[in-house]
Amino acid sequence: MKPTIKPKRTAEQRAEEESVRQQHAVNPVRQRPASAINQQSFTAILSLVTRFKAVRESQGLTLAEVAERMGIDAPALSRLETGKMLNPTLATLHKWAEALGQKLDVDLSELLATISSPRSNISPVLYIIESPNPVDILDGRKEGEALMMSLRLAEIKSIYFQIANQQMLEKVMRRISDDLQQRGDTVFIPVIHISAHGNERGIALTSEEVISWETLGNLLYDLKGRMGLSTVEPGTAVLAMSTCQGLHGYQVSRSNSRAPFSLMFGPTKNVEWADSLTAWITLYHLFLKKNFQLEKAIAAMNIAAGLEPRTFAVISGKSIEDQLRTQTSTALDQ
Q1: What is the distance of C-alpha 98 from the center of its chain?
Q2: Is-contact 129 172, C-beta < 8 A?
Q3: For 36-53, what is each residue's pLDDT tens digit?
Q4: Mean pLDDT of 235-257
Q5: What is the reported pLDDT for 275?
Q6: Which residue segments constitute the domains of the chain, with CATH numbers given?
Q7: DSSP states of 16-67
Q8: What is the DSSP string of 86-109?
Q9: Which residue in 91, 216, 240 sits closest to 156, CA to CA?
Q10: What is the mean pLDDT of residues 200-226?
Q11: Would you state the pLDDT for residue 42?
Q12: Could you tell me the pTM of the whole model?
């Protein structure tokens, strides 16, 4: 065996190595593995796995029976139950719950804080639906199209549709559900961004048809029913209303059902197109690209557009559901 020959280093090289060692001793670099999950997520998933295993056993079901319902093999389900694989996708968790006759509710407002993470299997995809009026078309003023170009430049997934009437709107909703179902096991949060003229009663299309909030709500509920397990919470989307007084869109919710959206963004008053475009670009860029907290991104979108605080705001579907339940309860008591 030949003797090991150590390479000769100059005094400068030895001094540089010693400097690196000292720096590491003071501030060691410990990079988190790309597949790692935090302690809170680990605990939540472990608790869910334990619950699902107990439910399976209480129902007298075998691993093979539940695995077949989920569309996976029994060894894969065994790895989930024994904790050998503790980072399942949300789509897998939904399938697991359904196979056991359970319901898995996920708070989308909490998940939105992590969708920009490169380690997350949750991904937003924006569907921009624009219906400019004839004057907008003549003047070349298309806010949605300009927004789409900005999003693509930032490499944020976006698909653009320009519609003229209600029939086209219905077709677009069907295309969105088809697109989501073709995206596989990755969990997508669909963001439906509607750019049109509107008021407190609804939105106006190129054809001059007025789509009431109730009619739009019916389309969103239909979409909700078709979207299946490809979304974070089955059939639930984020709704972004780029219309004047867009937050009046809460009226799409039915009093006896869950809201067809988890979160809804929009202006509380009339906003100029240029201000609106600036605000939306700021929101999506800061929140989806730069990982800003949602509250800070919303505050920044108002500042960037030179608008008063809370001109653009966000409401949750749950808050609307609670409000409608209270109104219904009050009406029944009277």
Answers
A1: 22
A2: yes
A3: 555 555 566 677 788 888
A4: 80
A5: 95
A6: 44-99 (1.10.260.40), 109-333 (3.40.50)
A7: HHHHHHHHHHHS---PPPTT---HHHHHHHHHHHHHHHHHHHHTT--HHHHH
A8: ----HHHHHHHHHHTT------HH
A9: 240
A10: 89
A11: 57
A12: 0.66
Cβ–Cβ under 8 Å, residues 144 and 160: yes
Q: State the pLDDT at residue 110.
A: 52
**For the chain, where are the alpha helices, taking DSSP H only?**
11-26, 39-58, 63-70, 74-81, 90-99, 108-111, 134-139, 143-153, 166-181, 213-227, 273-284, 294-304, 317-333
* Residue range 161-172, pLDDT digits in tens: 999 999 999 999
Strand partners, 240: 193, 265
SS3 194: strand
Looking up tokens 């697991």, which residue turns up? 96
Residue closest to 177 by CA, chosen among 135, 244, 224, 107: 224
Most confident of 79-83, 86-90, 109-113, 270-274: 270-274
Q: Is 91 or 196 the better-scoring residue by pLDDT?
A: 196
Q: Is the distance from CB of 170 to CB of 131 less than 8 angstroms?
A: no
The SS3 assignment for 236 reads coil
Q: Extract the tokens encoding 194.
A: 């509607």
- Structure letter (DSSP) for residue 231: B
Q: Using CA atoms in the order 156, 161, 166, 170, what is the torsion angle rounded to 10 degrees?
A: -70
User: How long, in residues, is the chain?
Assistant: 334
Q: Tell me, what's the pLDDT at 17? A: 75
